UniProtKB/TrEMBL annotation:
GO terms for molecular function: copper ion binding; protein-lysine 6-oxidase activity. It catalyses: L-lysyl-[protein] + O2 + H2O = (S)-2-amino-6-oxohexanoyl-[protein] + H2O2 + NH4(+). GO terms for biological process: chromatin organization; collagen fibril organization. The gene is loxl2a. This is Lysyl oxidase homolog. Transmembrane segments: none annotated. Mediates the post-translational oxidative deamination of lysine residues on target proteins leading to the formation of deaminated lysine (allysine). Disulfide bonds join 50-114, 63-124, 94-104, 177-241, 190-251, 217-227, 345-355, 461-471. GO terms for cellular component: basement membrane; chromosome; endoplasmic reticulum; extracellular space; membrane; nucleus. It is an enzyme of class 1 (oxidoreductase).
Length: 720
């Protein structure tokens, strides 16, 4: 036993003075490249670290050793999945000042009583340590990566799709030798810059100084930092790339970013029915993942959701690799079924529908809806618009860069027809989230005096454009009767927004007919809730009313608040309370060919929290001139027996019809998603009874199915 003790002392004493040579990487089921299970390369073998006694100080050492400024958090109990092989370190104690994890005290390498269910993980800051230099690490850790156009004229093209791949190390940009370069490396690089594909390209120019490493990617990495370093290129004389030339990549942009020879970039097109889409995101390339199955859209449960699966979605949609795999309904909660659970992708699938998944979604709720943030090409849109004069970067007068007399100048936008949809595009273009308000007067935001001239007028947006220049607008001839100055357009933006969704089942289950005498409808008649044929009707005449209840949920991330202030609310005698939105819904009845057969009316509302999800308190009430709105996670119910909660069908003949309800039809209040503001039902009326069926919200069905329901399309909501 003495001999054994002596041997142990000899083995571990040197480690107290000279730390063992180790290498680190972040592995496992990652949702970002800067997080994962901590793995240590020691003695020729990768292993993990036990979570016993681990701390934020140890996490900081790990992150700094990997080139990140600091640690954000650490996670016990194999949050990023269980590793394999040895558990190299246990009971790790760090002060946070160590240069390498090997300097921290521990039980010693390989001395552990842990299981892989105790593997520790960390989340590092996204910020890199400036000038950080890595030696011998098996994962690529560099300050930055770029694609630099080969020819000067190519540098003016947006986006830059091909060029030299360069890495910045020690503050200097260096090219990479293509001696061991593979197509899978190009795939990863292109994905990082927002491109779903790559094609072969060869450079014909040599250089003497190259980066001192090669790259070894498998092709399914979301970021080059997840690839491994290969051997250094062959040196000969002054050349550090004797057997190769600089790496050049040529990336293939997705359809929406691909230039066309005539018009530049595509602005609008009737696309084929996709199998996957993103909803609820503030900017291009992010949102809640929804997939189409049996003609109906549904969500994906976040169990096992990681960067590989998210990257498959991003590439399928024409973006690059995923920056982040989002969980917990962070892009808002969807409606309808949960189609996929426990998705596992290799990273090379053409569609998420090709990945393995558990078809049993029991136990998954929309609180677990998965989302993504994708890499998108740098289009330069943010450089062509700015907000000026605001109290913070999220608000101000809108100023755009326009060509006038052969030069680019900054100027203002005419506020005629300026509304929420236009503000939505500006906020998206600037990467500032959702629109909060659109302003038609901006005298309180003086802006840049040199940019007072109106350079853009007649702007009309659908709300889906990537840039304000993609919206309809006047050409070089500006028409702005109000002029600029105080009447220039302005916006305020927000990181969050509400999202109203009508419950279609509630409408379907509560629809019925009532014949009501005019003497009981005088108040409703005064508020224009009856068709024009009611004019001159006697008190004993009856009107036939299609009654129904509406239940409007706020599934967004911000409360829905009326635009009008308290002092402008209108008292409604019928309901005996103030209405904060004079036009909140439209009720209409259409024939099967799309023509309106009943004179629907514009219903005004008092907004309040009727009920809320468990754990959420009501904040808004109509009584006593209280504050109005709908809290996130709550819903406002207008019962079928309330005045004006109907369509007057007295003059409608028996037949088959489409019943439609549109919420917030004039976009008076900004939302994260307007496509779900329309609800349609099929109706059959025999002159005595009515049947309502197949009720659904806009965008919940495939193109083919929704085309069988005439009326408004989900992108034609505005009545402006």
């Amino acid at each position: 036993s003495r001999a054994l003790i002596f041997v142990v002392v000899i083995l571990f004493c040197p480690a107290q003075n000279e730390p063992a040579k180790i290498q680190l990487r972040l592995a496992g089921s990652k949702r970002k490249h800067n997080e994962g299970r901590v793995e240590v390369y020691y003695n020729g073998e990768w292993g993990t670290v036990c979570d016993d006694d681990f701390s934020i100080y140890a996490a900081t050492v790990v992150c700094r050793e990997l080139g990140y400024v600091e640690a954000v958090s650490w996670s016990p109990s194999a949050k990023f999945g269980q590793g394999e092989g040895r558990i190299w370190l246990d009971n790790v104690h760090c002060t946070g000042r160590e240069v390498t994890l090997a300097e921290c005290s521990s039980n010693g390498f390989g001395v552990s009583d842990c299981k892989h269910s105790e593997d520790v993980g960390v989340v590092c800051s996204t910020r890199r340590i400036p000038g950080f230099r890595f030696v011998g690490n098996l994962n690529i850790q560099v300050e930055d990566v770029r694609i630099r156009a080969i020819l000067s004229w190519q540098r003016k093209r947006i986006p830059v799709t091909e060029g030299f791949v360069e890495v910045r190390e020690g503050g200097r940009w260096r090219q990479i030798c293509n001696e061991a370069w593979t197509p899978t490396n190009s795939r990863v690089i292109c994905g990082m810059f927002g491109f779903p594909g790559e094609k072969k390209m060869v450079a014909m120019r040599r250089k003497n100084k190259y980066w001192g490493h090669s790259v070894n990617c498998t092709g399914n990495e979301a970021h080059v930092s997840n690839c491994r370093l290969g051997p250094p290129p062959t040196k000969k004389g002054n050349s550090t790339c004797a057997l190769g030339m600089p790496v050049v990549v040529s990336c293939v942009p997705g359809r929406v970013f691909a230039p066309t020879p005539v018009t530049g970039f595509r602005k609008a097109y009737r696309q084929e029915q996709p199998l996957v889409r993103l909803k609820g995101g503030a900017v291009v390339g992010e949102g809640r993942v929804e997939v189409l199955k049996n003609g109906e859209w549904g969500t994906v449960c976040d169990d096992n959701w990681d960067l590989r699966s998210a990257t498959v979605v991003c590439r399928e949609l024409g973006f690059g690799s995923a920056k982040e795999a989002l969980t917990g309904g962070r892009m808002g909660q969807g409606m309808g079924p949960v189609h996929m659970n426990e998705v596992e992708c290799s990273g090379f699938e053409k569609s998420i529908t090709e990945c393995y998944f558990n078809r049993d979604s029991l136990g998954c709720s929309h609180e677990e809806d998965a989302g993504v943030r994708c890499n998108v090409p740098a289009m330069g849109f943010q450089e062509r618009v700015r907000l000026s004069g605001g109290r913070n970067p999220y608000e101000g007068r809108v100023e755009v860069l326009a060509e006038r007399n052969g030069s680019l100048v900054w100027g203002t936008v005419c506020s005629d027809s300026w509304g929420t949809l236009e503000a939505t595009v500006v906020c998206r273009q600037l990467g500032l989230g959702f629109a909060n308000h659109a302003f038609q007067e901006t005298w309180y935001w003086p802006g840049d005096v040199s940019a007072d001239t109106v350079v853009m007028s007649g702007v009309r947006c659908s709300g889906t454009e990537m840039s304000l220049s993609h919206c309809l607008h006047h050409g070089k001839y500006i028409h702005c009767p109000k002029g600029g100055g105080r009447f220039s357009a302005g916006v305020s933006c927000s990181d969050t927004a509400p999202d109203l969704v009508l419950n279609p089942q509630m409408v379907e289950q509560t629809t019925y007919l009532e014949d009501r005498p005019m003497f009981m409808l005088q108040c409703a008649h005064e508020e224009n809730c009856l068709s024009s044929s009611a004019q001159g009707a006697s008190a004993s005449d009856y009107r036939r009313l299609l009654r129904f209840s509406s239940q409007i949920h706020n599934n967004g991330h911000a409360d829905f608040r009326p635009k009008a202030s308290h002092h402008s609310w209108i008292w409604h005698e019928c309901h005996r309370h103030y209405h904060s939105m004079e036009v909140f819904t439209h009720y209409d009845l259409f024939s099967l060919n799309g023509s309106k057969v009943a004179e629907g009316h514009k219903a005004s509302f008092c907004l309040e929290d009727s009920e809320c999800d468990e754990g959420i308190e009501k904040r808004y009430a109509c009584a006593n001139f209280g504050p109005q709105g709908i809290t996130v996670g709550c819903w406002d119910t207008y019962r079928h027996d309330i005045d004006c909660q109907w369509i007057d069908i007295t003059d409608v003949k028996p037949g088959d019809y489409i019943f439609q309800v549109a919420i917030n039809p004039n976009y008076e209040v900004a939302e994260s998603d307007y496509s779900n503001n329309i609800m349609k039902c099929r109706c059959r009326y025999d002159g005595y009874r009515i049947w309502t069926y197949n009720c659904h919200i806009g965008g919940s069905l495939s193109f083919e199915t929704d085309d069988t329901f005439p009326g408004l399309r989900t992108n034609q909501l505005s009545y402006r």
